[in-house]
Amino acid sequence: MNISPYFSVILRQRINEDMTMRKLATKTQIAYIRGVNNLCDHLQHSPETTTQEELREFQLFMVNHGVSGITVNATLSALKFLFRITLDKPEVVARVCSVTVARKLPVVLSLEEAKRFISCATHPKFKAALAVAYGSGLRVSEVVSLKVSDIDSDRMLLHVEQGKGSRDRYALLSPALVDHLRDWWRFANHEGQMFKGSWLFPGLNPIDHMTARHLSRVCKQTANAASIEKNVSMHTLRHSFATHLLEAGVDIRVIQVLLGHAQLSTTARYTQVATDLLRQVISPLDALSIKH
Questions:
Q1: Which of 32, 225, 263, 292 has a beta carbon 3.0–4.6 Å from 120's, enabling a disulfide?
Q2: CA quadruple 28, 148, 156, 247: dihedral positive or negative?
Q3: Ordered structural domains, the chain, with CATH
Protein backbone atom coordinates (compact mmCIF):
# COMPACT_ATOMS: atom_id res chain seq x y z
CA MET A 1 0.00 0.00 0.00
CA ASN A 2 1.43 3.36 -1.04
CA ILE A 3 0.98 5.83 1.79
CA SER A 4 -0.45 9.19 0.76
CA PRO A 5 1.86 12.17 1.43
CA TYR A 6 -1.13 13.81 3.15
CA PHE A 7 -1.25 10.97 5.71
CA SER A 8 1.43 12.33 8.03
CA VAL A 9 3.79 10.16 10.06
CA ILE A 10 2.55 11.79 13.27
CA LEU A 11 -1.09 11.03 12.45
CA ARG A 12 -0.25 7.44 11.48
CA GLN A 13 1.61 6.97 14.74
CA ARG A 14 -1.29 8.41 16.71
CA ILE A 15 -3.93 6.20 15.11
CA ASN A 16 -1.67 3.15 15.45
CA GLU A 17 -1.30 3.86 19.16
CA ASP A 18 -5.07 4.28 19.56
CA MET A 19 -5.71 0.95 17.81
CA THR A 20 -3.02 -0.80 19.85
CA MET A 21 -4.46 0.53 23.10
CA ARG A 22 -7.80 -1.03 22.19
CA LYS A 23 -6.16 -4.28 21.05
CA LEU A 24 -7.81 -4.19 17.64
CA ALA A 25 -7.09 -7.21 15.46
CA THR A 26 -4.23 -6.88 12.99
CA LYS A 27 -6.58 -7.15 10.01
CA THR A 28 -8.77 -4.41 11.46
CA GLN A 29 -5.76 -2.14 11.94
CA ILE A 30 -4.62 -2.68 8.35
CA ALA A 31 -8.16 -1.98 7.07
CA TYR A 32 -8.38 1.24 9.11
CA ILE A 33 -5.04 2.52 7.81
CA ARG A 34 -6.11 1.70 4.25
CA GLY A 35 -9.44 3.52 4.71
CA VAL A 36 -7.82 6.69 6.08
CA ASN A 37 -5.19 6.54 3.35
CA ASN A 38 -7.90 6.40 0.67
CA LEU A 39 -9.53 9.50 2.16
CA CYS A 40 -6.19 11.35 2.09
CA ASP A 41 -5.66 10.40 -1.57
CA HIS A 42 -9.12 11.68 -2.43
CA LEU A 43 -8.96 14.93 -0.47
CA GLN A 44 -5.38 15.81 -1.37
CA HIS A 45 -4.98 17.35 2.06
CA SER A 46 -4.67 16.20 5.67
CA PRO A 47 -7.83 14.65 7.15
CA GLU A 48 -7.35 16.85 10.20
CA THR A 49 -9.14 19.68 8.37
CA THR A 50 -11.87 17.53 6.81
CA THR A 51 -15.45 18.80 6.87
CA GLN A 52 -18.78 16.97 6.92
CA GLU A 53 -19.39 18.01 3.33
CA GLU A 54 -16.07 16.58 2.17
CA LEU A 55 -16.89 13.24 3.79
CA ARG A 56 -20.27 13.27 2.10
CA GLU A 57 -18.58 13.89 -1.28
CA PHE A 58 -16.06 11.13 -0.58
CA GLN A 59 -18.77 8.56 0.14
CA LEU A 60 -20.66 9.65 -2.97
CA PHE A 61 -17.42 9.29 -4.97
CA MET A 62 -16.96 5.70 -3.75
CA VAL A 63 -20.54 4.72 -4.55
CA ASN A 64 -20.46 6.32 -8.03
CA HIS A 65 -17.18 4.59 -8.87
CA GLY A 66 -18.47 1.10 -8.18
CA VAL A 67 -16.77 0.47 -4.83
CA SER A 68 -18.47 -2.53 -3.21
CA GLY A 69 -20.78 -1.97 -0.26
CA ILE A 70 -18.49 -4.03 1.98
CA THR A 71 -15.50 -1.81 1.13
CA VAL A 72 -17.54 1.37 1.56
CA ASN A 73 -18.66 0.28 5.03
CA ALA A 74 -15.14 -0.79 6.00
CA THR A 75 -13.82 2.62 4.93
CA LEU A 76 -16.53 4.43 6.88
CA SER A 77 -15.69 2.38 9.99
CA ALA A 78 -12.08 3.49 9.63
CA LEU A 79 -13.10 7.14 9.33
CA LYS A 80 -15.41 6.91 12.34
CA PHE A 81 -12.49 5.61 14.38
CA LEU A 82 -10.20 8.35 13.06
CA PHE A 83 -12.53 11.25 13.81
CA ARG A 84 -14.16 9.96 17.00
CA ILE A 85 -11.08 8.55 18.70
CA THR A 86 -7.84 9.84 17.21
CA LEU A 87 -8.87 13.37 16.20
CA ASP A 88 -11.65 13.79 18.80
CA LYS A 89 -13.94 15.37 16.21
CA PRO A 90 -17.10 13.21 16.37
CA GLU A 91 -19.18 15.95 14.76
CA VAL A 92 -17.41 15.38 11.42
CA VAL A 93 -18.79 11.83 11.13
CA ALA A 94 -22.10 12.52 12.90
CA ARG A 95 -24.04 12.19 9.63
CA VAL A 96 -22.06 9.32 8.12
CA CYS A 97 -24.22 6.25 7.54
CA SER A 98 -23.33 2.79 6.29
CA VAL A 99 -24.77 1.36 3.08
CA THR A 100 -26.95 -1.70 2.69
CA VAL A 101 -25.01 -4.74 1.51
CA ALA A 102 -26.78 -7.43 -0.49
CA ARG A 103 -26.38 -10.80 1.24
CA LYS A 104 -25.79 -13.73 -1.11
CA LEU A 105 -26.44 -17.32 -0.25
CA PRO A 106 -23.22 -19.13 0.71
CA VAL A 107 -21.70 -21.63 -1.72
CA VAL A 108 -22.09 -25.15 -0.34
CA LEU A 109 -20.66 -28.44 -1.57
CA SER A 110 -22.77 -31.56 -1.79
CA LEU A 111 -21.62 -34.55 0.25
CA GLU A 112 -20.35 -36.20 -2.92
CA GLU A 113 -18.43 -33.06 -3.91
CA ALA A 114 -16.92 -32.78 -0.42
CA LYS A 115 -15.73 -36.39 -0.60
CA ARG A 116 -14.23 -35.82 -4.07
CA PHE A 117 -12.60 -32.59 -2.92
CA ILE A 118 -10.82 -34.10 0.11
CA SER A 119 -9.74 -37.11 -1.96
CA CYS A 120 -8.06 -34.86 -4.54
CA ALA A 121 -5.72 -33.17 -2.06
CA THR A 122 -2.22 -34.07 -3.23
CA HIS A 123 -0.17 -33.86 -0.01
CA PRO A 124 -0.81 -35.27 3.49
CA LYS A 125 -0.45 -31.78 5.00
CA PHE A 126 -2.92 -30.24 2.59
CA LYS A 127 -5.34 -33.15 2.92
CA ALA A 128 -5.26 -32.84 6.72
CA ALA A 129 -5.63 -29.03 6.67
CA LEU A 130 -8.58 -29.15 4.28
CA ALA A 131 -10.13 -31.97 6.31
CA VAL A 132 -9.90 -29.78 9.44
CA ALA A 133 -11.65 -26.90 7.62
CA TYR A 134 -14.50 -29.15 6.46
CA GLY A 135 -14.60 -31.61 9.35
CA SER A 136 -14.47 -29.00 12.14
CA GLY A 137 -15.80 -25.87 10.41
CA LEU A 138 -12.76 -23.74 11.22
CA ARG A 139 -11.90 -20.48 9.47
CA VAL A 140 -8.73 -20.56 7.36
CA SER A 141 -6.91 -18.34 9.88
CA GLU A 142 -7.89 -20.77 12.65
CA VAL A 143 -6.72 -23.82 10.68
CA VAL A 144 -3.23 -22.50 9.99
CA SER A 145 -2.84 -21.25 13.59
CA LEU A 146 -3.43 -24.65 15.17
CA LYS A 147 -0.65 -26.13 17.28
CA VAL A 148 0.00 -29.83 17.87
CA SER A 149 -0.98 -29.28 21.50
CA ASP A 150 -4.44 -28.07 20.39
CA ILE A 151 -5.44 -31.65 19.52
CA ASP A 152 -7.24 -33.38 22.37
CA SER A 153 -7.76 -36.90 21.07
CA ASP A 154 -8.94 -38.14 24.49
CA ARG A 155 -11.89 -35.75 24.59
CA MET A 156 -12.12 -35.63 20.77
CA LEU A 157 -11.85 -31.85 20.65
CA LEU A 158 -9.78 -29.19 18.90
CA HIS A 159 -8.82 -26.15 20.94
CA VAL A 160 -9.22 -22.99 18.87
CA GLU A 161 -7.15 -20.30 20.56
CA GLN A 162 -8.17 -16.68 20.09
CA GLY A 163 -10.48 -17.15 17.12
CA LYS A 164 -12.51 -14.34 15.60
CA GLY A 165 -13.46 -11.80 18.23
CA SER A 166 -10.49 -12.91 20.36
CA ARG A 167 -12.53 -15.81 21.77
CA ASP A 168 -11.27 -19.29 22.63
CA ARG A 169 -13.55 -22.22 21.86
CA TYR A 170 -13.57 -25.96 21.28
CA ALA A 171 -14.30 -27.47 17.88
CA LEU A 172 -15.35 -30.92 16.75
CA LEU A 173 -12.65 -33.60 16.31
CA SER A 174 -14.16 -36.60 14.55
CA PRO A 175 -12.59 -40.10 14.26
CA ALA A 176 -12.14 -39.62 10.49
CA LEU A 177 -10.35 -36.31 11.09
CA VAL A 178 -8.08 -37.98 13.66
CA ASP A 179 -7.07 -40.47 10.96
CA HIS A 180 -6.17 -37.65 8.54
CA LEU A 181 -4.16 -35.89 11.23
CA ARG A 182 -2.31 -39.09 12.17
CA ASP A 183 -1.40 -39.69 8.53
CA TRP A 184 0.04 -36.18 8.37
CA TRP A 185 1.80 -36.60 11.73
CA ARG A 186 3.54 -39.80 10.61
CA PHE A 187 4.59 -38.26 7.29
CA ALA A 188 5.78 -35.01 8.87
CA ASN A 189 7.83 -36.77 11.54
CA HIS A 190 9.43 -39.07 8.98
CA GLU A 191 10.38 -36.04 6.86
CA GLY A 192 11.44 -33.92 9.85
CA GLN A 193 8.80 -31.27 9.08
CA MET A 194 7.11 -31.06 12.48
CA PHE A 195 8.33 -30.49 16.01
CA LYS A 196 6.65 -31.31 19.30
CA GLY A 197 4.67 -28.37 20.63
CA SER A 198 5.03 -26.48 17.34
CA TRP A 199 2.57 -25.62 14.57
CA LEU A 200 0.31 -28.39 13.31
CA PHE A 201 0.74 -27.09 9.75
CA PRO A 202 4.21 -25.48 9.54
CA GLY A 203 5.31 -23.39 6.60
CA LEU A 204 8.49 -23.82 4.56
CA ASN A 205 10.27 -22.47 7.61
CA PRO A 206 8.94 -24.65 10.47
CA ILE A 207 9.26 -21.71 12.86
CA ASP A 208 6.25 -20.16 11.10
CA HIS A 209 2.88 -21.71 10.35
CA MET A 210 1.56 -22.13 6.82
CA THR A 211 -0.01 -18.90 5.62
CA ALA A 212 -3.75 -18.51 5.05
CA ARG A 213 -3.01 -17.33 1.51
CA HIS A 214 -1.04 -20.49 0.73
CA LEU A 215 -3.80 -22.76 2.02
CA SER A 216 -6.40 -20.75 0.09
CA ARG A 217 -4.42 -21.32 -3.12
CA VAL A 218 -4.23 -25.03 -2.34
CA CYS A 219 -8.01 -25.03 -1.85
CA LYS A 220 -8.59 -23.54 -5.32
CA GLN A 221 -6.18 -26.00 -6.92
CA THR A 222 -7.84 -28.93 -5.18
CA ALA A 223 -11.31 -27.82 -6.33
CA ASN A 224 -10.04 -27.65 -9.92
CA ALA A 225 -8.48 -31.10 -9.61
CA ALA A 226 -11.81 -32.43 -8.31
CA SER A 227 -13.62 -30.86 -11.32
CA ILE A 228 -15.91 -28.85 -9.06
CA GLU A 229 -17.34 -25.93 -11.03
CA LYS A 230 -18.54 -23.99 -8.00
CA ASN A 231 -16.48 -21.05 -6.74
CA VAL A 232 -14.85 -22.94 -3.88
CA SER A 233 -12.93 -21.11 -1.17
CA MET A 234 -11.78 -22.09 2.31
CA HIS A 235 -14.95 -20.52 3.68
CA THR A 236 -16.98 -22.81 1.40
CA LEU A 237 -15.73 -25.73 3.50
CA ARG A 238 -16.94 -23.97 6.66
CA HIS A 239 -20.32 -23.27 5.03
CA SER A 240 -20.56 -26.92 3.95
CA PHE A 241 -19.72 -28.15 7.47
CA ALA A 242 -22.56 -26.10 8.98
CA THR A 243 -25.09 -26.97 6.27
CA HIS A 244 -24.38 -30.70 6.36
CA LEU A 245 -24.70 -30.75 10.17
CA LEU A 246 -28.02 -28.93 9.93
CA GLU A 247 -29.27 -31.40 7.32
CA ALA A 248 -28.19 -34.25 9.61
CA GLY A 249 -30.51 -32.91 12.32
CA VAL A 250 -27.95 -31.26 14.62
CA ASP A 251 -29.50 -28.49 16.71
CA ILE A 252 -28.74 -25.06 15.29
CA ARG A 253 -27.57 -23.78 18.68
CA VAL A 254 -24.96 -26.54 18.83
CA ILE A 255 -23.79 -25.54 15.35
CA GLN A 256 -23.59 -21.92 16.54
CA VAL A 257 -21.20 -22.97 19.33
CA LEU A 258 -19.07 -25.10 17.02
CA LEU A 259 -18.72 -22.25 14.51
CA GLY A 260 -18.00 -19.67 17.20
CA HIS A 261 -20.82 -17.36 16.09
CA ALA A 262 -21.72 -14.62 18.56
CA GLN A 263 -25.26 -14.29 17.13
CA LEU A 264 -27.67 -17.12 16.34
CA SER A 265 -28.94 -15.10 13.36
CA THR A 266 -25.57 -15.60 11.67
CA THR A 267 -25.91 -19.38 11.96
CA ALA A 268 -29.58 -19.32 10.95
CA ARG A 269 -28.79 -18.34 7.36
CA TYR A 270 -27.68 -21.94 6.73
CA THR A 271 -31.34 -22.96 6.91
CA GLN A 272 -31.68 -21.23 3.52
CA VAL A 273 -29.18 -23.57 1.84
CA ALA A 274 -29.99 -26.81 3.69
CA THR A 275 -31.74 -28.30 0.67
CA ASP A 276 -32.32 -31.70 2.27
CA LEU A 277 -34.47 -29.99 4.90
CA LEU A 278 -36.36 -28.06 2.23
CA ARG A 279 -37.12 -31.26 0.33
CA GLN A 280 -38.70 -32.74 3.46
CA VAL A 281 -41.29 -29.98 3.62
CA ILE A 282 -44.68 -30.82 2.13
CA SER A 283 -46.17 -28.00 0.10
CA PRO A 284 -49.72 -26.97 1.07
CA LEU A 285 -50.61 -27.44 -2.61
CA ASP A 286 -49.92 -31.18 -2.26
CA ALA A 287 -52.39 -31.35 0.62
CA LEU A 288 -55.23 -30.12 -1.61
CA SER A 289 -55.30 -33.33 -3.66
CA ILE A 290 -56.57 -31.52 -6.76
CA LYS A 291 -57.12 -33.88 -9.68
CA HIS A 292 -55.67 -32.93 -13.06
A1: 225
A2: positive
A3: 9-93 (1.10.150.130), 111-278 (1.10.443.10)
Does residue 203 sit in helix, strand or coil? coil
Going by the DSSP 8-state scheme, the letter that residue 209 receives in this structure is B
Tell me what pLDDT residue 129 has. 96
**pLDDT tens for each residue of 48-63:** 999 999 999 999 999 9
Burial class from Cβ neighbours inside 10 Å (0-12, 13-18, 19+) for residue 121 reads buried
DSSP 86: I
**Which run of H or E residues covers position 107?**
none
Query: In this structure, are residues 273 and 240 in contact, taking their beta carbons and an 8 Å threshold?
Result: no
Catalytic residue ranges: 139, 164, 235, 238, 261, 270
Task: Over range 157-167, report the average pLDDT.
Answer: 77
Task: Report CA-CA distances (Å) from 152 to 29, 156, 174.
Answer: 33, 6, 11
What is the spatial distance between Cα 71 and Cα 31, in angstroms, rounded to a whole number? 9
